[in-house]
Amino acid sequence: MRETMDIHTNSVHAKPQKSERKFLLSEMLGSKVFLHEKKIGTLTDLMIVETGRIPEVVNFVITRPFGDPPLLVPYEYMVTLGPHQLVIDGEDLKRFESLPPEDAILLRDHILDKKVLDTEDAEVEVVYDIRLVERNAKLYVTEVDTSKAARLRRLGFGFLSKFAPEKDPKDNGAISWMYIQPLPSHISSFKGDVKLRILKETLAEIHPVDLADIPVGAFVFTGHKALFGIPGIGGFFITEPEAVRITRQGGTGTDSRELTHPFAMPMRFEAGTHNYPGIASLYAGLQFITSTGQEAIERKNRDLTHGFIRELKNIPGVTIYNENPDLPVVSFNITALDNHEVGFILARAYNVILRTGLHCAPLVHERIDGGKGGIRASFSYFTSRDECSAAAQAIREVAESADSQVGSD
Amino acid sequence: MKEYVLDEPLTEGFLKFLENFGTVRFLEQLRKPYFSFEKALFISIKGFVGDSTVEVRYKKDFQDLMGDYVHLLLYYYDQGERGITALKGHEDTLKKKMKIRLDPLPGNGT
Q1: How far apart are CA A147 and CA A155, in angstroms?
Q2: Average pLDDT value for residue range A330-337
Q3: Residues in Cβ contact with A227 at an 8 Å cutoff, skipping those fewer than 6 apart
Q4: Residue B81 has pLDDT above 60, yes or no
Q5: What confidence score (pLDDT) does residue A16 get?
Q6: A295-408 falls under which CATH superfamily?
Q7: Is the pLDDT of residue A160 over 60?
Q8: Closest-CA residue in chain B for A407?
Q9: What Cα–Cα distance (Å) separates residue A190 from each residue in A111, A121, A131, A154, A250?
Q10: What is the rounded (10 degree) CA torsion for A209, A213, A219, A222?
């Protein structure tokens, strides 16, 4: 007899997510505005400033009844913002009494219902709505919405959009603000159209949300999951890299005479020897995604996931924890069997490799299965339907055997 | 966790032997007949009848003691009733050693 393997498990940590809220301009306009629980007017427009990337909302334009002058309330005076209600704070409304300045950019007046033209003045569509995101106590304009759903919503028939034929998967009707040309400086007299930075023909190729559009200080990603790289490669995006202190130094090799680590990007964050196999694999993965199409990949993953869930739902003794997952990941358990045992049996007897345990999320498992852990099936673009069916059949056999098990104490 | 490679494939007879020392679960209708053996505070063993590999888990604190225990299980399996009695005696000794290791103050483990 000999021992062949010794595996140690790693400690696990829950990762908190920053919250954000999304808004549609059409749902915000007309909102009742309250101050100290008293209605003082109606939200009629939002004033923005262009920040170089995506515009930020700086003022609410509020009209008041009885001929009272409008208010221009700075965003920081907002207490709560809902789809149909805005609560503001402040003692003296008088100081907010003002019309928007001549050079103010107003979303409703200047952008909404404008034609969208491409760089050759070909008409793309009409701005039926504008999408906004609240993050880190700031409100940003992220996209103009030219979709049919937005048009129906504006006409008061939003409920009809779910009956509309399935849209072209490449076209979600939203155009990132990054593709909008800067608005003219004489904005008060602006009666023209919203112009894009790209041609109409290339519109379908742009991703609805660009990483650089997201108003965050930093964005970190791993390369070995949806990006098809090998383990050990990832990356990050930092808005102000100079503001971030480096924690790893040495061995850049770009200027060996220097005694200190280079300050410039990207060497600033590239200490030591590069992970060349990882970089090459990530590059190949990105090329594959580009050539295959993100939407095609997502569609296949969705089909595999839903097909697998359909099969699992018919197996007695199987508990599925989310029947509509956002990712191609299905968490489940089999009654009367420990999750590790199920994983062991499936791997050794059926060649079906699933992850078991707490999945780096002990608090989630505390909630869904009392902290005992579960079994997780993950699908990739390279998983076939036959493999999914074979896995479901294996799970059926294990679940049925668990009912007729032989045991002794 | 450790994986042990045995000289011979596991048999149902070995599972009967294990029943004297803990809880055995046997799923015989699977593609490969699966079994697990659980002895609280000692070890858990998973494997398949007909296979010559088993997965053994135990607490790191008692790694050496439990490694010995696995060997004793295999050693006494061939000795019938006498082996069962002898191994139970070894179990008592192991429990005392575990107690002392958890609390080495005088008076413990006796």
Answers
A1: 13
A2: 94
A3: A221, A282, A285, A286, A289
A4: yes
A5: 36
A6: Aspartate Aminotransferase, domain 1 (3.90.1150.10)
A7: no
A8: B25
A9: 10, 17, 21, 23, 54
A10: 30
Pairing of strands A194-195, A174-176: unpaired
- Amino acid letter, B52: S
Q: How far is A396 from chain B (nearest CA, A)?
A: 10
Cβ–Cβ contact B28 with A under 8 A: yes
With beta carbons under 8 A apart, name residues in chain A contacting B33: none
Chain B residue numbers touching A399 (CB-CB < 8 A): none
Question: Using an 8 Å Cβ cutoff, are A88 and A41 in contact?
Answer: no
- Reported as a pLDDT band with limits 50, 70 and 90, residue A189 is low
Strand order in the sheet with A318-320: A318-320, A329-334, A374-378, A355-357
Shortest CB distance from A404 goes to which of B7, B29, B48? B29
Q: What CA–CA distance (Å, rounded) separates A29 from A376? A: 44
From CA A347, how far away is CA A29, in angstroms rounded? 56
Q: Are A407 and B26 a contacting pair at CB < 8 A? A: yes
A6 and chain B in contact, CB less than 8 A: yes
Reported as type and span, the H/E element at residue B53 is strand B53-58
Q: Is the pLDDT of residue A4 over 60?
A: no
- CB contacts < 8 Å between A and B, how many? 68
- Ranges A53-67, A188-202, A355-369: which has the least confidence: A188-202
- In this complex, is the C-beta atom of A19 within 8 Å of any C-beta atom belonging to chain B? no
Determine what percent of chain A falls in helix, strand and coil, rounding each to the nearest 5.
Answer: 30, 25, 45
Locate A101 and state its tokens: 């300045």
Average pLDDT in the A25-37 region? 89
Residue A134: in which H helix or E strand, if any? Answer: strand A129-135
Residue limits of CATH 3.90.1150.10 in chain A: 295-408
Of residues A87, A109, A110, the one with CA closest to residue A38: A87
